[in-house]
Amino acid sequence: MDGTLVDTEVLWWRSTERIARGLGHELTDADAPEVVGRAVEDTAAHLVRVSGGGDPSEVARGLTADFFRAVEAGAPMRPGAQRLLTALEAQGVPFALVSASPRLVVDSVVGGSLAHVPFAFTLSADDTDRTKPHPDPYRSAAERFGADVRDCVAVEDSPDGAASAEAAGCRVLVVPSLLEVPPSPVRTFARSLEEVTPELLRACLRGGVPRQDRPGSQAARPSSSTTPST
């Protein structure tokens, strides 16, 4: 969801910046691997470690509340997302949303920016014992579909999301957002969802396609002037 279908990674970074500042820590590029694509609890634990203060549970609640307010104000879809979802629906390809965000945030986005999208179901960080980068979310999604996980393609934008899907046994299509995602034999790369078609997803199941040329170097975090794409 975040950074893949909707442009919420920037919102998440800014929420984390605000909470970190309240703990006396200024977020930098060095924090990005513990923020981008990570579960709320993981980021909260990181902020407590680097700031030397705060209660992880309270920090997690603060992060969730701040991010929820930002998402409620509007989370635009990523370029190409609507076209791809429409094509999948037209061809009868079932798809679900598998997110490391809390259920509160998932429901807000699915009831707002993605209200018109016919997901088979949604999975949030609250729906499995462990969330990304562990394999539990994608294994659970395959079970919900009644499908072999090896017949599923996960579309991901972050290192943790790609690691989760790969560990579960999925083929992975990576469309990076804020962090560069390392290659692997089961990962196919695209620069944008505007390049992605149902045919490309089927090619992933057949063993993938040649890796797309990397886009320009990925920014580890948005600058203060970054505006979400529309």
TrEMBL record:
A UniProt-annotated Pfam family: Hydrolase
InterPro entries: HAD-like_sf (IPR036412), HAD-SF_hydro_IA (IPR006439), HAD_sf (IPR023214), PGP-like_dom2 (IPR023198)
Domain of life: Bacteria
Region (Disordered): 206-230
PANTHER family per the UniProt record, alphabetical: 2-DEOXYGLUCOSE-6-PHOSPHATE PHOSPHATASE 2, PSEUDOURIDINE-5'-PHOSPHATASE
Protein name per its UniProtKB record: HAD family phosphatase
